[in-house]
Amino acid sequence: MCSKKVILGVLVSLSVIVLTGCDFRRVVVNNPLVAESLERLVPGQSTVQDVARVLGAPDEIEEGAQGMVFRYRYGDSKTMRVNFGWLLRIFLPVAPSMNLGKGEGETYILHVAMRPNLTYDHSVIQPPPDPPHFGFWPF
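User: That's the sequence. What structure does it adopt?
Assistant: Structure tokens below.
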């Protein structure tokens, strides 16, 4: 008798999981930043064309009084989402969206500083910020 209840519970759980709309995504923006490629750039000698040849086209260019700054971004994010409203599509003409999801992502930014004479000066890789910490339990 107990085994029939367990089997029924497992079947109901599996059917709920199968009928629930699940969504897994991974988004990668640009190629990973490689620090070794920066070793080929010589401060004061490498030109804008050399920087573009080694690193490619920048995502953003900012001009300042001390020269230009090129910004290169690399991002990698993963998300998972479950839509429990998908189950109600069977009974209702409109499926309400009841999403429960979690994601994590990292975005690195490479800043390349150029001198006013348009030669390479220095570069800095900005790491992603620490993820925010949220505690659901208030105590």
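The mean pLDDT is 80.
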